[in-house]
Write a structure and sequence with these properties.
Elements: H1 10-25, H2 29-54, E1 75-79, H3 88-93, E2 101-110, E3 114-115, H4 119-128, E4 132-138, H5 145-156, E5 167-169, H6 178-196, E6 201-205, H7 206-213, E7 222-225, E8 238-247, E9 256-261, H8 265-272
Helix pairs in contact: 1-2, 5-6
């Protein structure tokens, strides 16, 4: 990928200013409580302006830059603000290695109070380009599972029939015992299921699954991350496989994760789309 063209360095100075201001008020709890949310919004605004201006200066990508796994016909990606501002039209029009991006999961929330700054952009524009869309939450085991689920639900709002089942991303212990992590994760899953009457899916790494989740949460689908030739977990257990974090896709400024679904397009719709789920 070609280097970015820096045509708006002032945004970088603004970002440094706000970050410095945030550090200074960190030592004063009263100031932090009153100004903290405004500082975060200001930083996000500057970052969004920077991303918006830089997007047109990324050149088109010809291929995914990785070898796609054999035997799978439904391919997709997952993104967050780390991929910056995505041009979803270009993503939808890209065709390489005899396939297109059919679905995307975008980060919506993390913990009890962090909202991904590009979530609404990704949701609106991916759906506009007819890419199947779903939202995920990055789980923090130190926090209440119920409160995290409430924040996720509030951020998503209405879950549309054309969207994919919600996902919880669990890949760290945050220094707490595994059994406590599982209790809070169970609280999250149950709250989401109660709200939308749909079982969410669990995303995790192969090793984390083997060490902390195997034998638990059997009624929930699993999305496994493993960047080798195959997964350790049996194909009877996983629904989706994240096989790389290094793909290059036209319209996305940074490298991106790619995934495959275990099954064809008809199986994908029945398994993943909200409108196909039994209530």
């Amino acid at each position: 990928m070609s280097k970015k063209v820096n045509i708006f360095p002032f945004s970088s100075f603004l970002l440094i200013f706000f970050m410095g201001l945030g550090y200074l008020i960190k030592e004063n709890p009263d100031v932090k409580a009153s100004l903290g949310p405004y500082i975060e919004k200001s930083i996000n605004l500057v970052l969004n302006v920077r991303d918006y201006i830089e997007v047109p200066f990324y050149k088109h990508i010809d291929g995914y830059g990785v070898k796609l796994p054999n035997k799978y016909s439904v391919h997709g990606i997952d993104v967050s603000h780390h991929q910056k501002l995505i041009d979803w039209k270009r993503v939808s029009e890209m065709y390489a290695q005899d396939t297109q991006v059919k679905f995307v999961y975008a980060k919506a929330t993390e913990g009890e109070d962090h909202k991904d700054r590009h979530f609404y952009h990704n949701r609106k524009n991916a759906k506009k380009e007819l890419i199947s869309f779903g939202a995920y939450h990055f789980f923090r085991p130190k926090k209440s599972g119920t409160k995290q689920a409430e924040f996720f639900i509030e951020t998503i709002g209405e879950l549309h029939a054309s969207e994919m089942v919600p996902v919880v991303d669990i890949e760290i212990l945050d220094g707490i015992p595994p059994e406590i992590m599982r209790e809070r994760l169970a609280d999250f899953l149950q709250k989401v299921e109660d709200e939308w009457n749909i079982k969410p899916m669990i995303y995790t790494g192969d090793s984390f699954y083997k060490d902390y989740l195997k034998g638990h949460f059997r009624k929930y689908r699993v999305w496994i991350a493993n960047y080798g030739q195959e997964t350790q977990a049996s194909t009877k257990r996983w629904t989706m496989w994240q096989h790389t974090q290094s793909a290059t896709i036209d319209g996305i400024p940074e490298s991106v994760d790619m995934n495959v679904f275990y099954g064809d397009w008809e199986a994908f719709k029945k398994a993943m789309l909200v409108g196909y789920q039994s209530h």
